[in-house]
UniProtKB/TrEMBL annotation:
Naturally occurring in which organism (per UniProt): Pontibacillus marinus BH030004 = DSM 16465
Family matches, as InterPro entries: HATPase_C_sf, HATPase_dom, His_kinase_dom, HisK_dim/P_dom, HisK_dim/P_sf, Sig_transdc_His_kin-like_C
Keyword tags: ATP-binding, Kinase, Nucleotide-binding, Phosphoprotein, Transferase, Two-component regulatory system
SMART domains, A to Z: HATPase_c, HisKA
E.C. number: 2.7.13.3
Catalytic activity: ATP + protein L-histidine = ADP + protein N-phospho-L-histidine
Annotated protein name in UniProt: histidine kinase
CDD domains: HisKA
Domain Histidine kinase, residue spans: 34-237
Enzyme class: transferase
Keyword DNA repair belongs to the record: no
Amino acid sequence: MLIEQNLDSHKHLRDKKETTESDKIPFIGELSTSVIHEIRNPLTTLKGFMSLLETETTNKGKEYVGIMRSEIERIEKMANDYLHCSKPQTHQVQQQNIVALIQSVVFLLEPSAQNKQISIHSNFNDQPIHIKCDEVQIKQAIINIIKNAIEATPNHGEIIVDIKQKDHTVLILINDNGSGMSQEHLNQLGISFFTTKETGTGLGLMVTYNLIKNHGGQIDVSSKKGEGPSFLIQLPY
């Protein structure tokens, strides 16, 4: 299976990711300052366009409303990511069928993928695999990764999701055929506010690492320039 071919290539990142994530808690104050700074910029933009909208009497007002909506959504995204990073995450752990959970995520994100003519292939069968987890948190972590894959994958590309059980561990592998990342960028993934996106904050992946780690799992990444990244999530059951 696809997972068997990719396990070894992820191992070299594991220790670095665990160390990076464990070092973040003492720097929440610095994180707060940075988030506030990031939020002030779109708020300033909103105020300017709202002033223009007050005197606008043509259809141009619709364009301004669209800009404001986009900025508001960006604020909400940053605020939600920050809350996930700064607040202790409490678990509501129950037995969950991880296969059904991932299928629901794929179904949820398929419209976004179809907008770019991207195919999401589920390389696993419907046989249930039950683990103890917080359904909302694990679902959010997987949404973050697949959503990032959709954004990074070019039109007409593909994303492959695979699941397997091994030694009391569930392995979830998510590959895309985007442009990939250099080793320098790969080493910085999960660091606060590092992102390769023009409008990203870098907090989404940090949240994902924390959610998986809080479940006793780990997440590793493998990539090289010219080949899309491969995310490997390991969860105990």
